[in-house]
Amino acid sequence: MQKKEGSMMKQIYDYIIVGAGTSGPIVASRLSEDPHVSVLLLEAGGENINDISRAPGAFFKVWGTDYDWQYETEPQKGLNNRKIYAPRGRVVGGSSAINVGFWMRGTREDYDFWEQQGAKGWNYEKALKMFQKIEDTDLGPTRYRGKGGMVHLEDSAYPSEFTQTQFDAFKEAGFGDIGDFQAEDPYCADIVQKDYINRVRHTPADSYLSEEVRKRPNLTVQTDTFVRKVIFKENRAVGVEVEYKGELQQVEARAEVILSAGSFNTAQILKLSGVGPKKELARHGIPVVADVPGVGENLNDHLMVNVRALSSVPIPDTHFNPISDESLAQWRKEQTGPACYYPGPAAGLVSSDGTHTGPDFEMILQYVHTANGSEKEFAGVENIAERSGYSFPVILMIPKSRGTVLLASGDPHDKPLIDPNYFDDPSDMKRFIKGIRYALQLTQTTALSPYTEMVHPALDASDADIEAFIRNEASTVFHPVGTARIGDLEKDPMAVVDSHLRVRGVEGLRVADASIMPQVNRGHTMAPVTYIGEMAAQIIQSETDRPYQRS
Residues 16-27: what's their mean pLDDT? Predict the structure, then answer.
């Protein structure tokens, strides 16, 4: 079969994979290892040719560009009716091409929870074996870390020894030791590893869609192609409808369509295709293929808020501009200088109740204060940008609140209505207040007190004060999951996919991305989505009854 990458020269493939973010390229790469099957990987955005997205300290400059879907939430009642910006990658590499790059897999409790929810075979021991296969890190090979895998990991670069002072504070406060939170004891702090090679981002898509892989004659990577919907013949997925170069086209799938478009777009595509809650579909005039009430429900996301401290004592090596022309030129030339540094190179996981049944909070250790002078505690501080300081972004690990992704209309180009419904469950606020007090406790350790002149929020803040602080300042950590969650389809009416990632009520359609996660993990989402991609490919390859396959 002759084909040219980036050009649909034929209209029929065995597998069509929608979304070339984190999971999609893995599925495409693994399935195309079989030379007897043809694979089409579709991406709405283009190739990742903007090198700024690969700079550890400047990647966020591509937010709001054509690399980004530029989503925002509906006004959030729990956040004083603020809309929250929610960047999502619209490029090969997806959100892993525009994120911080943290590789924090989550804990034993996270992966065992999937199986407890009915995802048979999806548990911690299975995940651990898969991560040993996936990872390439100097921390491996061990039971807990891989070596020689597809995703290269290296420690976050940092210029300031102040990070070690923050480690000392974490230990002094009794939160845990300094160690590897991917090992047996996650209640510790450490330098976070990221998917970089010599301070240049190397996404999972870069690894799984290497130049050698892209040369396979049975793999087509098709960019700048907008998927409108999945096409069904009765209840079987038989292809997709796309927009390519201004024209509508239909592409046929002999075997399956796999959606790997992310928690927002996968839910939207499913609904536009007639798979979702029938009342919502009817409201938009979409014929129902399968009434699947869980599609677009169960949206779960991490919230973060920043505890800041100003210091009267200078903290060396913390004042620099990573996005200046000079910094970017230095990084491009020799991978050194300010653009190499994201100012939160380390993190710690905390169990607030001492039960050690899963971390409640993640605290990122930042050697900059990130204040702008609008904070009431810092009112009147002159030249605040020139002041030294530090901060602790606090993340609530397992929020109980759940939200939705709904259709705005039946037009595929209308952005979905994203409502994470932050703080709908009152217990989330109670726990978050506790996390802020833990961060304030860190500022008063003997390690950090010499560098703590003023703190926001104030040390004597009441619970009401801290609640107001959270509602005014908290924002997303960009970890939306759960809108097509995995589970036992017979016992759980809101589960969307089964343990084989097959979508309820239809045939020939699977989902393989963050939307299948029952709840957000105690970490960051890039690693578990990589695991999902490998699992999806393994599951599909294990199913040997393929009457469509040609010899």
Answer: 98
